[in-house]
TrEMBL record:
This is Regulatory protein RecX. It comes from the Bacteria. The keyword Phosphoprotein does not apply. The keyword Cytoplasm applies. The gene is recX. Residues 12-48 form the RecX first three-helical domain. InterPro entries: RecX_HTH_1st (IPR053926), RecX_HTH_2nd (IPR053924), RecX_HTH_3rd (IPR053925), Regulatory_RecX (IPR003783), WH-like_DNA-bd_sf (IPR036388). Residues 57-96 form the RecX second three-helical domain. It is found in: Cytoplasm. Residues 109-151 form the RecX third three-helical domain. HAMAP family: RecX. Modulates RecA activity. Belongs to the RecX family. It holds the Pfam family RecX_HTH2.
Length: 163
């Protein structure tokens, strides 16, 4: 997947190059740098230095990731799983969601409605079509209550939209 590390490139050089494009969690960076052939001790030392300098932050990554996934119309269950898969611990995930709440939060019910409305033109005429819409929202990471709400209200004329 990755080419062996350049003989001149240090773990820091490669990490800076990656971080210049987007935020990465510490675990993601560690995996990428070791895959490039860097020594794991040198990688750990480099990542500690980057974190101390504020160039890499799991907190910042989690908040950025959460915002981007909300804009994609993903629900809280899927976002939590994806953050954990990227090496973010539960406390940081909880903190990112709390921070989002502090900034006005997100109405997960309205987001489920909008996501469903964007994908489907109506609630479906048959049980099979309605089940298809349920599976779509569940796959996007919305919980049972949010799915039920969206199926009942997504096409109401006064259905709220998410900015």
């Amino acid at each position: 997947m990755f080419a062996p590390a350049d003989s001149d490139a240090t773990p820091r050089d490669d990490a800076i190059r990656l971080l210049a494009r987007r935020e990465y969690s510490r675990a993601e960076l560690e995996g990428r740098l070791t895959a490039k052939g860097h020594d794991s001790a040198a990688v750990a030392e480099c990542l500690d230095a980057l974190a101390d300098e504020g160039l890499q932050s799991d907190t910042r990554f989690a908040e950025s990731f959460l915002r981007s996934r909300i804009l994609r119309g993903q629900g809280p269950l899927k976002i939590r799983v994806e953050l954990s898969r990227r090496g973010i611990d539960r406390e940081l995930v909880r903190s990112a969601f709390s921070e989002q709440e502090g900034q006005g939060g997100v109405d997960w019910f309205a987001l489920a409605c909008e996501t469903l409305r964007r994908r489907f033109s109506g609630p479906g005429d048959s049980p099979r079509e309605r089940a298809r819409r349920e599976r779509f929202l569940a796959g996007r990471g919305f919980d049972f209550e949010q799915v039920r709400h969206a199926l009942d209200h997504a096409w109401d004329e006064d259905a709220p939209s998410v900015p």
